[in-house]
Amino acid sequence: MAEERVPAIKVVLLPKDTNALGTIFGGVILSHIDLASAVEARKTAARRFVTKAMREVEFHEPVFLGDVVNFFTETVRVGRTSVTVHVSVEAERWGAGRGERVRVTEAEVVLVAVDGSGRPTPILEQTGTLV
Q1: N- or C-end of the chain: fewer Cβ atoms within 10 A?
Q2: The domain containing residue 34 runs over which residues?
Q3: Phi, psi for 28 (deg, rounded to 5)
Q4: Residue 84 near residue 108 (C-beta atoms within 8 A)
Q5: Bridge partners (DSSP) listed for residue 124
Q6: Domain containing residue 29: CATH number
Q7: C-alpha 111: how far from chain center
Q8: DSSP 118
Q9: pTM of the model
């Protein structure tokens, strides 16, 4: 039996999140991608992370009002001070195709570990173990 994927975050999008076309504004999706990638980065190390870059953001399908949106994450790379996370976004449609899941957006996010002064800091201790 296949293991069920667990999203980093799951949200229901509301009227305040819509654009002039009545679909969910892309910036709202980007904001949630940013949050989901931070949740994933914290699995690597208990550090403060800031977003350095969002790469290869692709919007495949629109997200509709009332969709339940799942943000799945996977760590792609761990560098000295950065973590690269792939985020796959799926919408659960609740119209005619009741419960249908549709891949709507994908992105790659680079986050950097920072110290109390906001300066990049190594993710790993000098011994090579996770902090």
Answers
A1: N
A2: 9-114
A3: -65, -45
A4: yes
A5: 130
A6: 3.10.129.10
A7: 11
A8: S
A9: 0.87
Residue 127 is assigned to a structural domain of this protein: no
pLDDT in tens, the chain (131 residues): 556 789 999 999 899 999 999 899 999 999 999 999 999 999 999 899 999 999 989 999 999 998 999 999 999 999 999 999 999 999 998 765 567 899 999 999 999 999 999 999 999 864 455 54
Using CA atoms, how far residue 67 sits from 3, 12, 20, 87, in Å, is 23, 6, 17, 18
- 109 near 60, Cβ under 8 Å? no
Residue 96: helix, strand or coil by DSSP?
coil
**Which has the closest alpha carbon to 107: 14, 5, 24, 29?**
29
Whether 14 and 65 have beta carbons less than 8 Å apart is answered as yes
